[in-house]
Amino acid sequence: MAELNLILLGPPGAGKGTQAGLLTEDFGLPHIATGDILRAAVAAQTELGKEAKRYMDAGELVPDSIITGVILDRIGQDDARDGFLLDGFPRTVDQADSLGAAIEQTGRRLTGAFLISAPDDVVVKRISGRRIGKSGRIYHVDFDPPKVAGKDDDDGSELVQRDDDREETVRKRLAVYRRQTEPLIAYYDDLGLLRRFDGTLGPSEVHAHIRAAISTLQREEEI
Ligand code: AMP
Question: 192 in the Ramachandran plot: left (φ > 0), alpha (ψ -120 to 50) or beta?
């Protein structure tokens, strides 16, 4: 298979980032996470970051006009020549249309849209319990707690909760997901690109299922 151009779909907290990290190790593809790109822009106080921040803090999507250009530019960069893993984009039908048009224009094509799903209560518990150390190390108050509550094991610094990880914001993000992003499931199903994965399973099990799906796609390509 020449290129592996994958989209990861699913609600926040379903495990897209974790799977993208594992697939990046497997295939050496760039993990393009729009949330991470936007958070870096906010931290660096760039124009993009300043514009995006208020939407992100409120759990809303940043406007398509702000994000789409950034991502289309990113997948055209050198390290994405053999493929890419999009995590958190597209999140609206407009974004999906722009992505499809840009990909077609450059003679590429999408390999698959992988949906990782999990019920609301599972993702709320996962996300609202997340705490982050200064180094970027991520803990969970129940599933992966630090040795001393509230302190980073590495440097003892105070752990913090991302503003948009608070329960009420997570519920808002989920409502936004249902309304604006879920239509993409039918969108990619109609294009024959959708594959479904159960995000309530452990990370290595989900990973094994995704690897199997990629192998199948690669075999189909060879036939
Ligand atoms: P994430 O870490 O992927 O959940 O993204 C965090 C926040 O960044 C989201 O709640 C949105 O405000 C914003 N964001 C990330 N990706 C997109 C996108 N494709 N379109 C619009 N907003 C986005």
Answer: left
Find out whether the beta carbon of 35 lies less than 6 Å from any atom of ligand 1. Answer: yes
CA of 57 to the centre of ligand 1 (A): 10
Q: Which fold has domain 4-30+77-118+181-222?
A: Rossmann fold (3.40.50)
Count Cβ atoms below 10 Å from residue 114 Cβ, excluding itself.
26
* Domains in the chain: boundaries: 4-30+77-118+181-222
Q: Give the Cα separation of 48 and 45 in Å (integer).
A: 8
Confidence band, pLDDT 50/70/90 cuts, at residue 220: confident
Residues 141-186: tens digit of each pLDDT: 999 999 999 999 999 999 999 888 999 999 999 999 999 999 999 9
Confirm or reject: Cβ of 23 under 6 Å from ligand 1: no
Q: Which residues are catalytic?
A: 16, 91, 130, 162, 173
Cut 0.85: pTM above it: yes
Mutate to test the pocket of ligand 1, among 39, 51, 55, 61 (most ligand atoms within 8 A of CB): 61
Whether residue 174 has its Cβ less than 6 Å from ligand 1: no
